[in-house]
Amino acid sequence: MNAPIGIFDSGYGGLTVFKHIKQLMPEYDYIYLGDNARNPYGTRSFDVVYQYTLQAVEKLFSLGCELVILACNTASAKALRTIQQNDLPRIAPEKRVLGVIRPSVEEVGQISRSRHVGVLGTNGTVRSHSYFLELEKLFPDVVVNEEACPMWVPLVENHEYERPGADFYVKQHINRIMAKDAAIDTLILGCTHYPLLLGKIKQFVPANVKILEQGPLVAKKLKLYLKNHPEMDVRCAKNGKVRFYTTEAPERFKESAQIFLKEKIEVHHIIIG
Ligand code: DGL
Q1: What is the pTM of this model?
Q2: What is the best residue among 80, 161, 191, 218 to mutate for testing ligand 1's pocket, by most ligand atoms within 8 Å of CB?
């Protein structure tokens, strides 16, 4: 078997995760799929996010992927469990779909000293309380506060993330979450778009608070997963090839993706659903 690893996001955000995966494991083949035509997912209902994500996963399977990473918190929060429990056994029992919430929770539970943690995410992720529920399961001693930052994805998607206008919304949500619980010592950036705002986030976060970015930790956990699952690893192609697909206009994706990845890429249009 010669399967690329599928990386899925509603748009560009997953590139902040993919960048680290590619850096850590350049020898594997990858297909990145961004559902830019239908994003943002963060504002959509549970059913719609589930349906869109399942369609994307099926598309990546049809392109030859055996393992798919949902590099999107909203999709991980609203669709992953149903896909793993109900759909995979039916459509592809040998294939695997993994998300970004579980690895983030495992990491945060180990690094927080005060045991007070803050989660920043889209409306969808925060309303699902997925972080809260996972943390409660794995680390019941951790106190969790969540804050939806609905303006942050549009700031990134519209290339406003380094401009002065972004300060207002970054400061507003950081102040709000710190006001909910001043003992927070670790903040999870629970949306794959947010690392682009990291420079600004750091300006407003108290100096003692750690900011947890998902890219490096998801890459590390994926490497470990493949080491622990040699039956999946042998199915993965290792020619260092990457293909990018978007449901929107490839030119638009290319322009923005280059900002995220800092390299020139080829992008193809794809229809899903
Ligand atoms: N990047 C997605 C996430 O991690 C959110 C973007 C969207 O709302 O579509 O949650």
Answers
A1: 0.95
A2: 191
The one-letter amino acid code at 262 reads: K
The residues spanned by each domain of the chain are: 5-100+216-269, 101-213
User: Backbone phi, then psi, for 214, in 5-degree steps?
Assistant: -80, -30
pLDDT at 258 over 90: no
**Domain 101-213 bears CATH identifier 3.40.50.1860:** yes
pLDDT digits (tens, 9 = 90+) for 184-226: 999 999 999 999 999 999 999 999 999 999 999 999 999 999 9
Cα 221 to averaged position of ligand 1 atoms, centre (Å):
20
CATH architecture of the domain 5-100+216-269 equals: 3-Layer(aba) Sandwich (3.40)
Ligand 1 atom closest to Cα of residue 192:
4
Distance (Å, whole) CA 114 – CA 209:
10
Euclidean distance between CA atoms 145 and 126, whole angstroms: 10
